[in-house]
Amino acid sequence: MAESENGNSRFQEFSDGVKAEFRKIVWPTQERLTKETIACVAISLVLGLVIAVLDWIFQLGITRLFH
Fold first, then answer.
1. What is the pTM of this model?
2. CA 57, CA 54: separation in Å to the nearest integer?
3. Ranges of the chain whose pLDDT falls below 70
């Protein structure tokens, strides 16, 4: 029975710790979340475009090299 009580107290400590950490979370405002989302999407699009252009250039170069 002592093991069961010890297990419950460890779980209670863990649960209390999780609750305490959740109280420390600072959630972003709607404005900040929108700005960061737009920045993330824009950077992803630009990077995708750069990779596509580089891929096209390498493909052109290899095609001309071997034909």
1. 0.61
2. 5
3. 1-5
